């Protein structure tokens, strides 16, 4: 690992914001970062080695931070969640059941079969992708009250389930590790809530802001990395550590100053580094050697749209169903975990990313058509 490599990763990561500049296209920033990584990695010019130990470790730090930010963006405190919780939860369960059946059907056609993984991928939603689209809408959205809890539940449950289904032979130790990490994140939530209720958190915030100590940022990073260390030692995933801690912070309420600091660290450096590293790790040439993987990617993307769109039968607008299928965090995490544990077939990682891109493209089309409608 050299400063030249670090500078290159930071430079090519700028392709993400450049690609996302046209607002009408609604392309997530991470897509450009993944593409940049693909160009300089295994598939492209091979300028960087994603297996290099230091680069890989920095990418894992970025992975934990990205998942923390994703967890903190789940709208737990949004009062609109409570209004449609019952209907939203029922729809999330229905989507999960449909995805389970379809995941089994898809797995019978591909080798090696991963029915649990395919089910989780198709059932997932990405609040980090969907919420900005919802918030930017200038028109009233019918069915929004039940839509928000649906995507929040799907996002959280699928991230928890992913480490358990991606490598079934290791499901038991992964489950025990996941329970340990979730218990630790829950304990952190209660401790932080106690500090919040007693006013200690507010006093720390005031002193930190007045004297520029960045105490909240330091303490949160200590807790995040501590949870990540626990996850590694208990055979869980840093993904779950980051997301669980993010949910704990979201449940209490993240101070605006802390949110800006974490945004700067994650989106300014370690997040782009992680996505560039992930893109560099993908070997898209394997898709050429295994055309069936292209079909798998399309099937996963269209399958996700189908199972979410099927909620039209429960009265949900079809546009919201397609929007709920938009996914990014779970597929990206699946590829990361799959590459680490070597459980994915050649070309399967790129196929999973292709499936995610299909859902994002569909969500972009829906959001653009909604934006054209008169308010």
Notes on the structure:
With 375 residues, the chain is mostly helical. It has a single domain, classed as Na+/H+ antiporter like fold, CATH 1.20.1530.20. The protein has helices spanning 3-12, 15-20, 29-40, 53-72, 80-83, 85-107, 115-123, 127-136, 144-165, 171-198, 200-211, 215-233, 238-252, 256-281, 285-289, 291-309, 318-324, 329-341, 348-372. Helix 6 (85-107) packs antiparallel against helix 16, helix 7 crosses helix 16 and helix 10 packs parallel to helix 13. The radius of gyration is 20 Å and the shape is globular. The chain starts with a helix and ends with a helix. The model has no long low-confidence stretch (mean pLDDT 89).
Mean pLDDT: 89
CATH topology: Na+/H+ antiporter like fold
- The protein's oligomeric status is single chain
The CATH architecture can be named as Up-down Bundle
Biggest β-sheet, characterized?
none
Report the radius of gyration as a whole number of Å: 20 Å
- The share of residues in helices is over 70%
Distance between the termini: 52 Å
H/E series: HHHHHHHHHHHHHHHHHHH
SS elements, strand count: 0
The structure class reads mainly alpha
Strand content: under 5%
Instruction: Categorize the overall geometry.
Output: globular
- In total, the number of domains comes to 1
Per CATH, the class reads: Mainly Alpha
Number of helices: 19
Low-confidence stretches: none
């Amino acid at each position: 690992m050299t400063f030249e490599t670090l500078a290159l990763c930071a430079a090519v990561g700028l392709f993400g914001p450049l690609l996302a500049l046209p607002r009408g296209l609604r392309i997530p920033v991470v897509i450009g970062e993944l593409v940049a990584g693909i160009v300089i990695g295994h598939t492209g010019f091979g300028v960087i080695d994603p297996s290099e130990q230091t680069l890989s470790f920095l990418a894992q730090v970025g992975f934990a931070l990205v998942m923390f930010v994703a967890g903190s963006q789940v709208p737990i405190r949004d009062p609109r969640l409570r209004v449609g919780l019952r209907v939203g939860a029922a729809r999330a369960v229905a989507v999960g059941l449909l995805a389970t059946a379809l995941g089994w059907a898809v797995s019978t056609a591909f080798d090696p079969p991963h029915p649990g993984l395919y089910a989780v991928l198709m059932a997932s939603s990405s609040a980090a992708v969907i919420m900005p689209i919802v918030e930017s809408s200038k028109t009233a959205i019918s069915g929004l009250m039940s839509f928000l809890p649906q995507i929040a539940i799907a996002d959280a449950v699928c991230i928890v389930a992913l480490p358990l289904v991606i490598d079934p032979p290791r499901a038991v130790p992964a489950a025990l590790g996941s329970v340990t990490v979730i218990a630790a994140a829950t304990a952190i939530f209660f401790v932080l809530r106690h500090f919040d209720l007693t006013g200690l958190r507010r006093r720390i915030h005031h002193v930190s802001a007045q004297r520029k100590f960045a105490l909240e940022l330091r303490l949160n990073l200590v807790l995040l990395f501590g949870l990540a260390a626990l996850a590694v030692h208990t055979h869980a995933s840093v993904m779950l550590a980051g997301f669980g801690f993010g949910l704990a912070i979201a449940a209490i309420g993240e101070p605006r100053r802390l949110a800006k600091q974490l945004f700067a660290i994650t989106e300014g450096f370690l997040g782009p580094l992680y996505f560039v590293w992930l893109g560099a790790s993908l070997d898209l040439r394997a898709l050429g050697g295994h055309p069936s993987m292209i079909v798998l990617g399309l099937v996963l993307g269209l399958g996700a749209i189908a199972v979410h769109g099927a909620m039209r039968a429960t009265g949900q607008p079809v546009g919201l169903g397609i929007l709920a299928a938009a996914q990014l965090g779970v597929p990206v995490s699946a590829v990361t975990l799959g590459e680490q544990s070597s459980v994915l077939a050649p070309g399967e990682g790129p196929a999973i990313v292709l499936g995610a891109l299909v859902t994002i493209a569909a969500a972009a089309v829906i959001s653009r058509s909604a934006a054209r409608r008169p308010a």
